[in-house]
Task: structure prediction
Amino acid sequence: MTEINQEKAHIDALKSQLEEHNYQYYVMDAPSIPDAQYDRLLVELIALEKKHPELVNSDSPSQKVGGISLSKCDAVVHEVAMLSLDNGFAEADLIAFGKRLQDRLMPVTYMQFSCESKLDGLAPSILYENSDLTRAATRSNGKAFT
Result:
């Protein structure tokens, strides 16, 4: 088996593993591995896909956020896209996130960050109208939660 075929097989195996972990996490609400282990698998997949961009496709876990939404949840389109740091492990990742914020939002001359331990699923989007709570949703893919 050639090196490219071995790496394609490894990419396929990683994608399959990650999709199963996504299903357990998002649909079954029963995570099968710790977040750090999931992140290591995803970083490995991304590195292989960067090495072989011809093997990247839209069904890759590296190209989408999360899994299938629970059917008991209503669809919500966020008023403003909720951005994500993604997998930030170094100062350069935070700097890149700041750049994405500046590019997408408005010109700003000063930004301040506060870092906390990662708590998945706890990024709420809360909408009040005339002092009444109208809607609360999670970030999901940042554009819509279904």
